[in-house]
Amino acid sequence: MLILTRSVGKTIRIGDDIEIVILRINGNQVRVGVSAPPHITVHRDEVYQRIQANQNCPS
Prior knowledge:
The chain has one helix at residues 45-56, and strands spanning 11-14, 18-26, 29-35. The chain has 59 residues and is an alpha+beta fold.
């Protein structure tokens, strides 16, 4: 795992197409903006886990 330290307004790039911007830090919460192409899905982990559980659940 790569660990980075960024301050408000700073950007992290992943490849050519994904940009992560630190928008606000409030105590132990960080507001992050993510710009990615439409074919890349971006979810919070708890949402991703729920989607995965629903896809693996027999109908």
